[in-house]
Amino acid sequence: MSQSGPDTSEQQEQGAYQPQRYQPGAYAKEHIRITPTILADGRQFFYLDDDPEYVSGAKTRQLKDPRPLADRFSPGVDADGNPIKVQAPQMRRDPLTGDWIPMATARMNRPITAGPGATATGNPLAARKPGDPYQDGEVPDTDYDVVIFENRFPSMMQVPGVEPTTTYVDGNHLWPMREANGRCEVVCFDPDENSLPAQLPVKRLRTVVEAWAFRTAELSALDGIEQVFPFENHGQEIGVSLAHPHGQIYSYPFIPPRMEAELKQSQAYAERTGGNLLQDILQAELKAGERIIMRNHSWVAYVPAAARWPLEVHVAPVRDGILSIDQLDDQERWDLAQMYSTLLKRGNAFFDKGDGKGMDLPYIAAWHQAPVQDPRRANYRLNLQFFSFRRAANKVKYLAGSESGMAAWISDTTPEKIAARFHELGAVDISAEGE
């Protein structure tokens, strides 16, 4: 059992990562370098560098993780010292809704560095500090551009050699139970733990977009994965436990409930009309015009006509037929980085505290991609759903009885008012910005 991570000098000499399914475009081939390594406990880790010195190979990354961590798949021991199998997450199916509910008890031990419940003072997502003794951080180097690694405290995990097997809670067929045989990854956007995603340059966000495309392609190739979901939680009020600019990618071994509902609607629409529901929604929003808040060469951002949240924006590609992020071309990836940057900045300016400075908006950015294997994927379309539960500078929307108890949303505003506020913050056509 390795205690300090395998020797990966051969990988370093080989240079660029050799992917299974990911196909970099012209820009990524010339300006982004992917360097893989393995952390001390066996988890995969990737550097995505956009610094020319690393891209050219003039500089190379530190690839050895010096922490004395046990292999994550090694057997544990119980209170009496008897060996037990690795305690992987499980999932149970709710017979009332049909939803699979992952259960990961190890997440109770994860470090929390943000908010009143903080349990750790260090930041495991930050790079090592030169000259300091190595602490329990996840990045083996003293700096980085963008990094991706498997979550140390995953909600879902694939254990080698363990095939998902359906059993039943208490032996009762009402409650199917299986291994939560998915995967959870972390994407760190920048080494500066005090920076905000809205402050990152468009070039860095372009590397983040490449990270989403890279992992979408590679994770879609894993056995048993049904849905790849890149997302970003931002802000203590959202429940973010680590204060660092980062996002996550969940790879589910099932179709999650929100996607299942959207697939049912889009499939029924296709059977009824022969059209693509998401494409027709985009065209209808463009025709109405009032709720369009931004557009550039490749993307359109709008407040949906039936918005749930007090601040909600959907972002869709102009080109039809795009099912997932890895299908975007170079121009679309650059335009997405530009639009995402502008959206974050305007989101921070949306609520006025009276000083004209806006605020650090708590938000969730959720990428809705076509499922990996489900045949209904052909009638879906890539889209980003961005929202915040803040409804004023000093108020949040609580999901109370109707929302939490019945999933019946009641909005405190109208989509037209949300769009009108965005119109006050900048021009709809942003094509020339950042060029």
TrEMBL record:
UniProt feature coiled coil, ranges: none
Domain (Galactose-1-phosphate uridyl transferase C-terminal): residue spans on this chain: 263-425
Region of interest: Disordered: 1-28, 58-84
Entries under Pfam families matching the protein: GalP_UDP_tr_C (PF02744), GalP_UDP_transf (PF01087)
Organism name: Bombiscardovia nodaiensis
Ranges for domain Galactose-1-phosphate uridyl transferase N-terminal: 87-256
EC number(s) from the headed UniProt entry: 2.7.7.12
GO molecular-function terms, A-Z: nucleotidyltransferase activity
Name the record gives this protein: Galactose-1-phosphate uridylyltransferase
UniProt keywords, alphabetically: Carbohydrate metabolism, Galactose metabolism, Metal-binding, Nucleotidyltransferase, Transferase, Zinc
Cofactor(s) recorded in Swiss-Prot or TrEMBL: Zn(2+)
